[in-house]
Structures are given as C-alpha cells and as structure tokens.
UniProtKB/TrEMBL annotation:
It comes from the Eukaryota. Gene3D superfamilies: 3.30.420.40. Keywords: Nucleus, Transcription, Transcription regulation. InterPro entries: Actin, ATPase_NBD. One of its GO terms (cellular component) is nucleus. It is found in: Nucleus. This is Actin-related protein 5-like. It comes from Elysia marginata. Coiled coil: none annotated.
Length: 203
C-alpha cells in the first residue's frame, strides 16, 4: 500500500461493492430438449449449486446452496421457504438459514430435495412425476454409499429418471471447459439406454 506525501493517508483507496442477489429466471422447456434426451448437469457444491442442460456452455442457474424457512407475514401458521437467489438478504434471515451439507457430505436430505425441486422448476421441467432426462450429479470424494443412496432417493425417489450418474466433484464441473454431449458414443465402456451419451471433461 502506497502512502501519500504526508505519510498519513494512503494514496490508493479501494472500495468493495456489496453483492446483490437477483432472483433466478424461470426458463422455458423447449421440445428439442425432450426429443434429444439432453442430460441435466447439477454441480451440487457446498457453497454454490450450478445447474443447466449439458448443451449450454455456462450454467444459467448459479445460486448459494442455502434454504431459509420463515413464518409468513400474514399467517404465522404458513411457512415460507426461500432457496438460493430467492434469499435477497442473507443477513436478515441468517438465523433460519439451513444447508443440506455437514462439511461436504449431504446429510439433510429433505433440504436436498427442495434444492432439486428448485432446479427442476427454474429449468422449466413440467413433466409431472418424472424427469425424462439423464441426470449427472456431483458428489464429494469418498462419499459414503449410504449418503449417496439417500441423496438420490431424497430428490429423485418420486421421479422417474432415465439415468442418474454420480461423479466426484473434481472430475465434473459445469462451466468452461464443459461436459460434452455426443451422439452414440460410449462413456468409459458404458452406454446410456438411448441414442445419446454424456462425456465428462476434466479441468
């Protein structure tokens, strides 16, 4: 840090802008996604969740992996649930914030289910009772089998999914470089039960 001539006031003063949270957009669900069975990628991180279709270079859904439950203003018996970027001011609801993670392992599976519902609704998935796409979901390194099973059951137990592939977080990310969606190609010797396959690129 440089000092001014009088050695009292720094010559360079930097200001930090407060992060402003903007609620996520509800996107359309075009028929082309359904016809091609495009995979859905969910990077389920402890700080941020990033999600989008595999055909997008950058994820459109990027939000803090947090859930806040508070009493309704008009009716105290109603519980309002805010997720991710719907929480416009974290400090106000800090005492009711919850995360599905204990360190980096998912342990609160009801919260994880709410995060999945948030992703599905904002990506416009409107197929009742099913997600007609393969889902690629990141997990922590050495994630216990029990937690893996409960994670998939919590968010996907009531849904029919074509395929759910769990990947270590250091092998998969949604961003640049991104995952590649390739027609009729095997992934590590495995085939998905349809004409397209999902390949994972390492950063």
């Amino acid at each position: 840090e440089k000092m001014s001539a009088n050695n009292d006031i720094p010559s360079n003063v930097y200001s930090f802008k407060d992060e402003k949270t903007i609620p996520d957009t509800f996107y359309d669900y075009p028929a082309s996604l359904t016809d091609d069975k495009v995979p859905l990628v969910i990077d389920n991180g402890t700080y941020q969740c990033r999600a989008d279709w595999a055909t997008h270079e950058d994820p459109r859904l990027v939000f803090k992996n947090l859930v806040a439950k508070q009493r309704g203003k008009r009716n105290q018996n109603e519980v309002e649930t805010l997720i991710g970027n719907d929480i416009t001011n974290v400090e106000v609801v800090k005492w009711v914030l919850r995360s599905q993670f204990d360190r980096n392992i998912v342990t609160l599976f009801d919260i994880q289910e709410q995060v999945f519902d948030y992703v599905f609704s904002h990506l416009g998935i409107n197929t009742e009772g099913s997600v007609n796409h393969p889902i690629v979901l990141t997990e922590a390194l050495c994630n216990p089998n029990y937690n893996r099973q409960c994670t998939t059951n919590s968010g996907l137990s009531n849904l029919f999914c074509l395929k759910c592939l769990m990947s270590k977080a250091n092998e998969l990310h949604v961003g640049n470089p991104v995952c590649f969606f390739v027609q009729k190609k095997p992934f590590k010797g495995l085939f998905f039960p349809f004409s397209s396959i999902f390949l994972i690129s390492k950063s």
